[in-house]
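Q: Got a minute? One more chain.
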Amino acid sequence: MMKKRILFLLITILSLNCYSQISFQKGYYIDNTNQKINCLIKNIDWKNNPTEFEYKLSENSESKKTTIKTIKEFGIDNISKYVRSSVNIDRSSENIKNLSNDKNPIFKKEDLFLKVLVEGKATLYQYIDRNLRRYFYNNENSNIEQLIFKSYITENNIGTNNRFRQQLFVDLKCPNFKTSKIENIEYKKNSLVRFFTEYNKCHNSELINFESEQKGDFFNLTIRPRLNSSSLTIQNSVSNSRDTDFENKIGFGFGLEAEFILPFNKNKWAIAIEPTYQSFKSQKTTNVNNISGGVLIANVDYSSVEVPVGLRHYFYLNNNSKIFINASYIFDLSSKSSIEFTRNDGSNLNSLEIETRNNLAMGIGYKQNDRYSLEIRYQTNREILGNYLSWNSEYKTLSIIFGYSLF
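A: Always. Here it is, folded:
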């Protein structure tokens, strides 16, 4: 109970006092009168294309909000750029359950902030609204148009309208481009960014690739030794003569964590998978009256490979340090582990084969220079005698985890 209170207190303090890496950064906006205003824009690394943003005219001024109705364009220096455009957009669903029989796009005119991915003689734009993902383009001074891609239902299958390839073939010609190159383009960001970059280079056009400007480290591999404080109690619902409290033991563990940074919201979210070896050994001697010799000796030898799969959230304190919290679901793979009951003379009474169930974990930690980390993690109760109807167990662990990121 005390462990839960400590962890709850730490998380509460964290949520009240720390701040993230979302900050006001140098940028600009252009209003409806074509006036360009240099300012500081709150960069929240929008996952979905915004309809408004927050800005300051100086570090010490109050922040203000403005919307797509009054702004034609805004950008954050060397990071991102959004352009307002009145475009025809097809919002047809790509969800299999909601596909239509019509392969043609259903256009609707909307005013949108389009995110610039590649800017040059030909410019590529992106629009995301939850599960909807659309790409737009223009060539020099032409109007911005959607690159058309749509899935639809045929008589026996699912078809795709890949007209975007024809659009690129007709409008973005280059002597070096073969037909096979156009045929292999996918309606995906990376594929389209490569194509537009190559097209602009083919025409010796100055270009800005905002995607290359934002490339970051989206994968971390970290070795994570740990100090475990674990406790185990077992109870029998038929007879309490063999109920045993193995008490708290200090042990060591070792994990190797693969962390995948999600590329939105300023890299504040991550998914982590961490195979970890852990063990628990203990012996408890009890005086009893119902067995020969009057002494019951219980031995537990439990080792396993835990595989926590978790979601992590970072709070940046500055450019070099950050605090994180995470929640994990733990798959436990035990091997040849058991609890043995013996008499004082060493003769065996019976043994219980350990068969574990999965459990949850919560952690709070600190990371420095994207290299060194320290985490406190609490695991909820894990049942380790899952094959026995008359037995119950409570296995709990509090860990102090040290981390060193290899890359």
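A: The domain at 219-405 is CATH 2.40.160 (Porin).
Q: Perfect, thanks.
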